[in-house]
């Protein structure tokens, strides 16, 4: 019986759960590293005598690093293997977090933060590719989506730990704050020891005996490569050639929807108090509102994760972009409304954008074949961070020159463009074997004339 059963149809086992923790741990450290700098930026500015130029560079250094790390990590993960790159990110977290203890200039801090950004960029393609290539198909979407939630947990931990160190760490506490990520990098490195290589990657390199051994070790001795669905036969092509062969549209879809999802999100997240002030939400209500909106970002991701298998990927992303875009549109239209109305609309945006956020790791890992899967994730994260950096930089300029109404309309337009791109290009991959999902024969819209939700209802017992 095991000879005919796909390993993608097997239930979750202990290895899957451990691997989920190992991969999600990287996302936790990402959230921690990227958030910790904001807590001590004012103290660093005074201690190092940073001018406006260096403040801007230090603040954006990690985003710049992610751009390069995404490309590099994706390429090397497909070239050298998932297991080797699995330890590069944690090693960089440890080294460059510790070096911040002795930083003496804006230039040094920029370099160290840039390299931490590179580590973050590497983490996205390798951790998600590793996870998707082992998980059963029914758990693939929820577990990949759930990783996004862990980012917010890391960010919250950064704020809590950072404040504690500042309160009890003395005059140089800011140094201990920004270097504290080294501890989590060390824990992550140790946690990942013993992880085997992906059997799909091994098969792609012709290392059949090693792939067989990994499958038996992780799934049971009764299973082997005969239980791993065969990938669509292809000539060995480069990443660029594969894009020309038909995957170019999918790469455009991933890059565009990811970018459209994060530009308004980063802008709102980075400049929440300023945006709320422009909408006449001030004082204690603004402080409480910022906390509520942040919590609803998390709640939106949790809700989307719980719905991803029921609604399907395509329906989820369309609903997410439509309702969150509508909330931003109404914020522009009702920019002079009462603070309560403004907070309700902002809360609606935070809740509904969760669907697009959790799919940023699901879609690129499902719709590309093994040989370019990590590279596709790397390109997606790199391109999206260009948009995030540009959006973050332009928000205060737009508020000053165009006003809050136009700024909200621009944010809504970006979100609706993401909706249009998704409507045209987003395929449905729910309940598919990984190879079927990555096949070019799986094209949007869903092949059935029935909506995805109707199909799911009929399939439920």
UniProtKB/TrEMBL annotation:
Span of the signal peptide: none
Stretches of the chain forming a coiled coil according to its record: none
Keyword Cell cycle: no
Entry keyword set: Membrane, Transmembrane, Transmembrane helix, Transport
Full protein name: MFS transporter
Main location: membrane
Domain of life of the native organism: Bacteria
InterPro entries registered for this protein in UniProt: MFS_dom (IPR020846), MFS_sugar_transport-like (IPR005828), MFS_trans_sf (IPR036259), Sugar_transporter_CS (IPR005829)
Domain spans labelled Major facilitator superfamily (MFS) profile: 19-430
Keyword Aminoacyl-tRNA synthetase: no
UniProt region (Disordered), positions on chain: 439-461
Membrane topology reported for the UniProt record: Multi-pass membrane protein
Residues annotated as transmembrane: 21-46, 52-72, 84-103, 109-132, 144-161, 173-191, 252-276, 288-309, 316-334, 340-362, 374-394, 406-426
Compartment(s) of residence: Endomembrane system
PROSITE patterns cross-referenced by the UniProt entry: MFS, SUGAR_TRANSPORT_2
Compositional bias segments (type: Polar residues): 439-455
Family: Belongs to the major facilitator superfamily. Sugar transporter (TC 2.A.1.1) family.
């Amino acid at each position: 019986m095991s000879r005919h059963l796909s390993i993608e149809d097997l239930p979750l086992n202990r290895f899957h759960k451990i691997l989920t923790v190992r991969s999600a741990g990287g996302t936790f450290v990402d959230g921690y590293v990227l958030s910790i700098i904001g807590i001590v930026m004012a103290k660093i500015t005074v201690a190092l005598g940073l001018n406006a130029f260096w403040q801007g560079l230090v603040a954006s250094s990690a985003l710049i690093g992610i751009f390069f790390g995404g490309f590099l990590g994706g390429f090397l993960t497909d070239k050298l293997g998932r297991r080797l790159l699995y330890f590069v990110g944690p090693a960089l977290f440890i080294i460059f977090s510790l070096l911040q203890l002795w930083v003496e200039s804006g230039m040094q801090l920029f370099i160290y933060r840039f390299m931490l950004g590179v580590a973050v960029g590497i983490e996205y393609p390798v951790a998600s590719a590793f996870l998707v290539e082992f998980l059963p198909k029914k758990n693939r979407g929820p577990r990949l989506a759930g990783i996004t939630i862990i980012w917010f947990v890391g960010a919250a931990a950064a704020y809590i730990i950072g404040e504690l160190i500042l309160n009890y760490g003395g005059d140089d506490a800011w140094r201990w704050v920004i270097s504290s990520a080294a501890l989590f990098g060390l824990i992550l490195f140790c946690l990942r020891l013993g992880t085997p290589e992906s059997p799909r990657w091994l098969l792609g390199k012709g290392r059949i005996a090693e792939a067989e051994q990994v499958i038996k070790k992780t799934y049971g001795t009764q299973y082997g490569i005969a239980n791993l669905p065969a990938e669509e036969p292809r000539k060995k092509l480069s990443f660029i050639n594969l894009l020309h062969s038909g995957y170019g549209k999918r790469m455009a879809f991933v890059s565009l929807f990811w970018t459209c999802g994060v530009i308004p999100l980063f802008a709102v997240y980075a400049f929440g108090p300023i945006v709320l002030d422009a909408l006449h939400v001030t004082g204690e209500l603004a402080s409480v509102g910022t906390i509520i909106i942040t919590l609803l970002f998390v709640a939106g991701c949790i809700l989307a994760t719980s719905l991803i298998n029921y609604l399907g990927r395509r329906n989820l992303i369309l609903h997410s972009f439509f309702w969150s875009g509508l909330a931003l549109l109404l914020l522009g239209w009702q920019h002079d409304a009462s603070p309560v109305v403004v907070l309700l609309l902002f809360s609606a945006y935070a809740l509904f954008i969760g669907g697009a956020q959790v799919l940023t790791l699901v879609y690129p890992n499902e719709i590309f074949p093994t040989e370019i899967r990590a590279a596709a994730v790397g390109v997606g994260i790199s391109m999206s961070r260009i948009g995030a950096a540009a959006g973050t930089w332009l928000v205060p300029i737009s508020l000053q020159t165009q006003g809050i109404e136009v700024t909200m309309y621009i944010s809504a337009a970006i979100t609706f463009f993401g909706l249009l791109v998704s409507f045209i290009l987003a395929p449905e991959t729910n309940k598919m074997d990984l190879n079927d999902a990555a096949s070019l024969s799986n094209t949007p819209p869903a092949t059935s004339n029935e909506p995805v939700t109707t199909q799911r209802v009929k399939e439920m017992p």
